Amino acid sequence: MIVAAVLFAYAALLCTLAPRLLRGAGWAERAPRLGIVLWQVLCASALTAAVLAGLALTVPTVRVGSDLAQLLQACVMALTAQYASPGGAAAGAAGAVLALAVLGRLAWCTGAALVRIRSERREHRTVLDMVGRADPVRGVVVLDHDEPAAYCLPGRHRRTVITTGALDALDDDQLTAVLAHEHAHQAERHDAVLAWAQTLAVAFPRIPLFHDAEAEIDRLVEMRADDVAADRSGRLTTAAALLAVAGGRTPAVALAAGGSTAARRVRRLIEPHRPLSRLRVAAGSLTAALALAVPLLVVGGPAAAATQLNYCPDGTPAPQVTTMH
Ligand SMILES: [Zn+2]
After folding, report:
1. How far is the CA of 4 from the centre of ligand 1 (A)?
2. Which of 28, 80, 204, 226 could cross-link 35 (Cys pair, CB 3.0–4.6 Å)?
3. Which residues have C-beta under 5 Å from ligand 1, the single-atom ion?
4. CA distance 153 to 126
5. What is the pLDDT of residues 97-121, one digit of tens each?
6. 289 Cα to the center of ligand 1, angstroms
7. How many angstroms separate the alpha carbon of residue 262 from the centre of ligand 1?
8. Average pLDDT of 160-165?
9. Where are the alpha helices (DSSP H) in the chain?
């Protein structure tokens, strides 16, 4: 019961307090990739803790049939003793329902998102193949449209799309920056990162952590792609390119170079560049590793203690008991 309570409390803290501390954090804009990883890790850690809490409540109700090896039975009994719960079968059933509900909801929403994304991409690709024309030199699909816009359609048959309006508005360096931005989205699979964050927000809409993670990751992947473009073309050139395509409308299924966060991103590129120090990046990475490890350590402690009782078949023979007559 203690294990389950600790895991519940940890998951609840992550779901409510973590987003308040992290939302809009200035340091994340200085190291967007670390920010993305930290939000992802916190989401994964909260989910893991919730599922393990349910399973930890369930363990005391496990029963081993008499036909199974005595050694295995003794092992399970030792584990059961470690997870002993005064709630008995009711707590175990509640734990099983929680774990199955979280995993089931997640699987359902992930499956639905995969089907929807695949269908939308296929439809959009078909339209692009009909109305766009390939530019093999630049490696893009050109759309005849006055509105300056650039975006990538991610996936296995990915396309980088640019309108004739954007080609007219951008000089060569700015075009290189825009293409570098789109290639960064594709190379770092930002579509998968965003799809996962959106799926969690849809699956558990009332949980602040998942809601805020979606918004923050959406913002940070754009900043990360801006940084890759700026490394190639310079920050001011990237800012100018962003301004040129900022107003362009793009399909929901695509990752655009402009978008709703463009104003803040342009300001960030114009301001003096202050990347996060190595020490602070290391501290952030350590925090992420700890957040991932905590639920496993909490649930693994009693299991490890059980193996020390020599009931489990871990290769170490149990001590011999001798009697004196
Ligand atoms: Zn973008």
Report:
1. 41
2. 28
3. 222, 225, 255
4. 12
5. 888 889 999 999 999 999 999 999 9
6. 28
7. 9
8. 93
9. 2-22, 26-30, 32-58, 70-82, 88-131, 164-169, 172-187, 190-203, 208-233, 235-245, 262-270, 278-307
